[in-house]
């Protein structure tokens, strides 16, 4: 096993533990929670096996669902953003993605925030839509999506900055 594989395995389990033991118990204003476990999907190496990546994303969401007793909403949202990730990467990073040369610690801050924001908003919208599952509550869905997404984006950007500086 190479160090990249070990790093990914460590990140996978660490983010699940952080989500389940810490972040699931944070509850601002009754409905705002951070979901930093999506960082595994956001920062997964670009040039790896796509089928394995989608499967790992499903497992990530499934573990969070099992520990959160949330009935599959995290797994569905994770698989969705894992599936659309190449399109968002191409939009956010352009030619860097085309040449498979993205190293997230070396990307421009603005591009990284755009990339994180798009996938996190989509993840949260799908998750809260499936959790509430009532179109008459669209305002509540959008409100939870917006505020939890902002909190998650800030947390993910901070975590990625902290850990990318240690690697350089």
Folded structure, characterized:
The chain has one domain: Arp2/3 complex 21 kDa subunit ARPC3. Helices cover 73% and strands 0% of the residues. 30% of the residues are buried. With 168 residues, the chain is mainly alpha-helical. The model has no long low-confidence stretch (mean pLDDT 89). The two termini are 22 Å apart. The chain has seven helices and no strands. Helix 3 packs across helix 4.
Specify Rg, calculated over alpha carbons.
15 Å
Main pleated sheet: none
Portion of residues within helices: over 70%
Terminal CA distance reads 22 Å
CATH architecture: Orthogonal Bundle
* Highest CATH level, the class: Mainly Alpha
Q: Structural class per helix/strand content?
A: mainly alpha
What is the 3D form? globular
What would the average pLDDT be, to the nearest integer? 89
| Distinct helical segment count | 7
Protein name: Rod shape-determining protein MreD
Transmembrane segments: 12-30, 50-68, 75-93, 113-133, 145-163
Keywords: Membrane, Transmembrane, Transmembrane helix
């Amino acid at each position: 096993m190479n160090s990249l594989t070990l790093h990914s395995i460590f990140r996978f389990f660490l983010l699940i533990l952080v989500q389940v033991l810490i972040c699931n118990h944070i509850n601002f204003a009754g409905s705002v929670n951070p979901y930093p476990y999506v960082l595994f999907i956001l920062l997964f190496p670009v040039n790896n096996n796509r089928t394995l990546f989608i499967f790992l994303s499903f497992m990530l969401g499934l573990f969070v669902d099992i520990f959160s007793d949330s009935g599959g909403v995290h797994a569905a949202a994770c698989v969705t953003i894992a599936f659309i990730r190449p399109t968002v990467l191409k939009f956010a990073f352009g030619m860097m993605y085309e040449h498979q040369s993205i190293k997230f610690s070396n990307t421009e801050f603005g591009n990284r925030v755009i990339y994180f924001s798009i996938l996190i908003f989509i993840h949260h919208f799908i998750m809260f839509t499936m959790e509430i599952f009532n179109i008459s509550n669209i305002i509540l869905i959008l409100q939870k999506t917006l505020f939890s997404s902002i909190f998650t984006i800030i947390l993910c950007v901070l975590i990625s900055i902290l850990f990318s500086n240690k690697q350089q």
